[in-house]
Write a structure and sequence with these properties.
The chain is an all-alpha fold. It has a single domain, classed as Ferritin, core subunit, four-helix bundle (Ferritin, Up-down Bundle), CATH 1.20.1260.10. Helix content is 78%, strand content 0%. The mean pLDDT is 87.
């Protein structure tokens, strides 16, 4: 079987790929932004609640950065075909049923937030690579800032998990 190499992508195709994936992350973050208040309210561990508030503040900044990117590239956000991230939030954050142990809810929240941050890390890396290829330096910098915050948040939630599990 012969290896089929991808064709060279022109600027228009790369920009289309960039906007498509930016939309997915943007609307996923917007959806999460709308629902984080509820998630914070059902968390029982105070350190987790504080970490989630910090995470929420970062999400708001990331949304602002992505809106700046849309302006830089003269595009408008479109939520067409943006169900994947929203679906993860809707389907995995089925936390309305009370658990017998609060740690179950708290650890679910931590796991799902880390899952979303890992998706964000991958998406930001890809978007940054495309932005550099398209010589969109300002957009690349804004994506780097989003990426760095996501790394910090992932580490924060890992520390919260360790703190929770090791409480005497």
């Amino acid at each position: 079987m012969a290896l089929k190499l991808p064709q060279s992508l022109d600027t228009d195709v790369l920009k289309h790929v960039f906007v498509h994936n930016l939309n997915r992350i943007y609307f996923g973050k917007c959806y999460l932004n709308q629902h984080l208040g509820h998630l914070i309210s059902i968390a029982s561990f105070e350190s987790l609640q504080m970490a989630m508030q910090e995470f929420w503040d970062d999400i708001k900044r990331q949304i602002e950065r992505m809106e700046a990117i849309y302006k830089l590239i003269n595009e408008k956000p479109s939520d067409k075909n943006c169900n994947p991230i929203k679906s993860i939030v809707k389907d995995n954050f089925c936390l309305d049923e009370a658990q017998e142990l609060p740690i179950l809810t708290d650890m679910d929240i931590i796991s799902y937030l880390q899952l979303l941050e890992h998706i964000n890390l991958s998406a930001c890396s890809m978007l940054e690579m495309i932005a550099k290829k398209l010589k969109m330096d300002e957009a690349s910098q804004l994506l780097t800032e989003c990426f760095d915050e996501s790394i910090d948040n992932d580490q924060l939630f890992m520390l919260i998990s360790k703190e929770y599990v090791t409480i005497n």
